[in-house]
Amino acid sequence: MYAQMVDTGLAKVEDLDALPPAERAFPARIDADVKIEPQDDMPEAYRRTLVRQIQQHAHSEIVGMLPEGNWVTRAPSLKRKAILMAKIQDEAGHGLYLYSAAETLGVSRDAMTGDLLAGKVKYSSIFNYPTLTWADIGAIGWLVDGAAIMNQIPLCRCSYGPYARAMIRICKEESFHQRQGFDIMMAMCAGTPAQKAMAQDALDRWWWPSVMMFGPSDAQSVHSAQSARWKIKLLSNDELRQRFVDQTVPQAEYLGLRIPDADLAWNPERGHYDFGAIDWDEFYAVIKGHGPCNRERIEVRRKAWDDGAWVREAALAHAAKRAARTDDAAEAA
Ligand code: BYC
Fold it and tell me: Which of 44, 50, 140, 248 is least enclosed by beta carbons within 10 angstroms?
């Protein structure tokens, strides 16, 4: 249901002839939709932009496991628990593909993790909100994974080959995640009045943070123009946000839930829903580290990294022993 997002056309093409000959090859490849691969020449700023975005994306997948992990032991049935565990494991896999994609640009996973723990790079704002009830797990799948797919389907066609290819599998899995969330919401909305109220409460708390996930408005987005030129970004933050709202409002109606926005209304002239003002102060506070759970999330990641030190050490020692054994065998032959 999200596949219609693939056709895009945001990039602004400059006059290649106006560039010095040495600088034409790269934009010409971008314009011709030739994928950029790790061994290809690329401007340093393109490489840095990708490292920033891909690692932010990878960290988001990993930190994104935390709010959901909070409910594994309290899922309401064995089936729900198995589904939730599978989803969370998928997120770990997404983080790993994305770290691998970033590593093709010459940055190590250790360095990326160091930057996350030092607060030098971001992860998605959305994961700094708490999961207070089981309905939050439904709302995350429905809204957060729904927003993530909206943003990520165009990335399957972005200009950097390893990132684009990683996104294909990720999007297929996100689609299952969105459906499992909607399925939880359907079950709760068809349940007792208390369960339906719980679903409404989760929507009330997750709606605006989900709308904010797409990033600052186009007018405030510092990286959009350049990333669009390089075909890293194929749709703007505001275009994606609008598509998310348009897609999600009928789903809320189907569930019999009310979106917490008094200004939400269908605009027949635009062919889109109008929606209310976003609280950008809240968004910027969260991405600067002052959301409800920022400190807790980083602390948990720091502890996981420290606790895993012996595993990394053992894996390296094992790899060194195997390499030495292979060398010995080669010498003996
Ligand atoms: N949260 O110029 P802009 C998931 C930052 S994981 C935090 O528009 P850009 C999932 C932005 O980084 C979802 N920071 O930037 C996992 C920049 O700051 P820096 C993650 C944000 O890069 C588990 C500044 O604001 N998805 O799906 O052109 C379970 C200015 O913004 C946010 C991705 O990462 C935010 N929401 O556009 C369920 C997708 N928004 O870096 C689901 C890939 C903006 O200069 N990323 N900022 O310090 C992207 O598509 C783009 O990077 C963004 C931002 C649209 C997020």
Answer: 44
Question: Does any ligand 1 atom lie closer than 6 A to the CB of residue 242?
Answer: no
Please state the pTM of the whole predicted model: 0.92
pLDDT > 60? residue 8: no
Determine how many CB atoms are found less than 10 A away from the CB of residue 306. 10
b/e string for 280-298 if b means 16 or more Cβ within 10 A? eeebeebbeeebebbeebb
- For the segment 204-229, what is each residue's pLDDT rounded down to a tens digit? 999 999 999 999 999 999 999 999 99
Ligand 1: centre distance to CA 213 (Å): 7
pLDDT in tens, 177-208: 999 999 999 999 999 999 999 999 999 999 99
Q: Among 237, 232, 284, which Cα is nearest to 49's?
A: 232
Residues 6 or more apart in contact with residue 143 via CB below 8 angstroms = 181, 203, 206, 207, 210, 248
Report the distance separating Cα 299 and Cα 116, nearest Å: 11
Per the listing, tokens 């020449």 go with: 41
CB proximity list for 259: less than 8 A, separation 6 or greater: 203, 207, 248, 249, 252
3-class DSSP state of 195? helix
